Amino acid sequence: MKKILLTIVLVVLICTEALAESSVWKIQKDGGVLYLGGTIHLLRQSDFPLPPEFEEAFKKSDILVLETDLGKFKDPATQRKLVSKALYADGSTLDKHMSARTYTLLDKYCASIGISLSKFQHFKPSIIAVTMANAELAKLGVGQEGVDTFFYQLAVRDKKGIEGLETVDEQIAYIVEMGEGNEDAFITHSINDLESIKQDYENMVNAWKHGDAEKLDELIVDDLKTKLPKLYKELLADRTHSWLPKIEAYRRTSEREFILVGAGHLVGSDGLLEVLERQGYTVEKL
Question: How many domains is the chain built from?
Answer without folding.
Answer: 1
